[in-house]
Records
---
Amino acid sequence: MTDAVFENAKAVLARVEAAAQRAGHPVTLVAASKMNDAARVRLAFDAGVRAFGENRVQELEEKYAQGAYAGAALHFIGHLQKNKVKNVVGKADLIESVDSLELLELIGRRAQALGITQRVLLEVNIGREPSKTGAMPEAVPAMAAAAGSIAGIEVLGLMTIPPNTGDREKNIQYFVQTRNLFVDIRAKKYDNVTMSILSMGMSADYEDAIACGANMVRVGSAIFGQRHYT
Ligand SMILES: *Cc1c(COP(=O)(O)O)cnc(C)c1O
C-alpha cells in the first residue's frame, strides 16, 4: 500500500482536474492524511498534492514538527475542542470545521493575540444527524452574520460531511442543499465572509460533489488506502 500513495495521488489529482473541467471551476484537492505518517504525506506531496487535512490536534502537531506539510497548505478538518484552539490557530492555513459561534469567537480571540487573521469554514450538519458535529443548517446564516463583529477571523465558506446513506441520489441532494445554503449566504455579503470555498466530497463521492459545486474536496482512503483503526 505504501508504494501506491504516489500513484494514487496522481490518479486522484487527474480525476479531480477532469471533474473540475467538466464543472467549469477550479477545485482544490485536500488530502485527508489522518493515520498516515510524514513519509506518506511527502509521497502525496511529491505527486503534486498541495493541501493536507488533519483531524487530530496532536497528530497535526507531531507531523508539522517533522516538516510533513512543508510547501503545502495545512487544514484542520476535525472536531476542534475549545482547549485546543491555541494549538491550531496560526498553524492551520484553514480551519474547516467551525460549528459554533463560541468556537468562532475563541478562534478570533487567539488570532488577535497572535496578530493574524485566521481563515475558517463553517461546518454544516446538512443531514441533521445527532451523532455528528457541524452546525444545524438553519443556524449557519446567523453564524455568518455574526462573523462581521468578530475580529481576527475570515469566513471563507462552508464544509459538510453528508450522512453515509449509500444512496447516491440522496447524497447528491445533500450536496445540492449545502450548495444552496452557500449561495444564499454569499448573496448577503456579510462583513468578514467571502463565501469563496465550498468543501464537500470524499473518496467515494468527490466527483459528484464537484458537479454539485464543490471547489474543495477532502480525499483520504483513495490516496492513502484503507485506514486501520485499532
Ligand atoms: C477522513 C476524512 C475525510 C476523507 O475520508 P475518505 O473517505 O477516506 O476519503 C474527509 N473529511 C474529513 C473531515 C475526514 O475526517
---
Amino acid sequence: MASATNDPAPKAPIKRVAVGRRTLLGVTALGALGVVFGSSVQNFLGKAFGSGLGGLLPGGDRFRIYSITGAYPKIADRDYRLKVSGLVERPRTFTLEDLKAMPPTSFVKAFQCVTGWRVPEVHWAGVRLSDILDSVGVKPEAVALKFESYDRADTESLTIDQAHLPDVIVAYSMLGAPVTTEHGGPVRLYVAPMFGYKSLKWLSAIRVVNAVEPGFWEENGYPVNGWLDGTTGPANPDPSLT
Ligand SMILES: Nc1nc2c(c(=O)[nH]1)N[C@H]1C(S)=C(S)[C@@H](COP(=O)(O)O)O[C@H]1N2
Ligand SMILES: [Mo]
C-alpha cells in the first residue's frame, strides 16, 4: 500500500509556518507536495541492507520518496540526456553512457532531509560535478549553477565553489544499484554536505549562470546554502525542526 503526504516546506519566506518534525501539512498554496511511502521501496531497502534494517520500522532509517508534482517522470536509460549550457566554453549534452564513460566516483554517505529523517551509510556512485564542469570549461564570469529536473517543477542552485566540492556528484547509482525512478533515476544530483532538498532528482539540465538563482525549495523558505553543518551556514530553516 502506498499513501501520499506532504513535505512540511514553509509556505513562504514572509509568512513562515512553524512546522514540527514529521508534522504533515495539508495541501499548500503551491499544490500537493507528494511523498510516497511505498512498500516496494521498503522491500528494496530490506534487500539492500539485509535483516539488520531499522528502516522497516516507521520513522527509522529509510528514505521517504518525495515529488513536488506527486508523480515521477519515467525516463528510459537510452533516452536520458543531461544538457549543460550557459557560461561554458563547450556546451554539451551528455547521455547516460557518456556519464558512465567518465571517471567514476563512489563513496558511502548519509542522506538527510531537513524534516528530520536520515538514512546513514548510503552507497553512492556517479561523476563528480567538478569533472563535468571541467569537461565543458566554465567561463571566468560564471558564479553559480542552476539545475533543472525532468519533472519541470523542481529546480536547484549551487555556487561554482560548492559545485567543486569532491562529494557533490551527478549520481547514477544509489543504495548500491542504479538510481530507481522513485529516487530520481536514471540520474540525480547528490550534494552530500547539504540537506536532501539540494539533491535534485531526475536531473535534466545544468545552466551555468552569473548569479545564484534560488531553487524551488529556497523560494519556499529553505536556506539557499543548505549545509548540514550549522557552523558553515544556516543548517535548518526552522528551529523547531532540530
Ligand atoms: N525533482 C525533485 N527532486 C527532489 C525533490 C522533489 O520533490 N523533486 N525533493 C527533494 C527533497 S526535499 C528530498 S529530502 C530528497 C528526497 O529524496 P528521495 O525521494 O530519493 O528520498 O529529494 C530532493 N530532490
Ligand atoms: Mo527534504
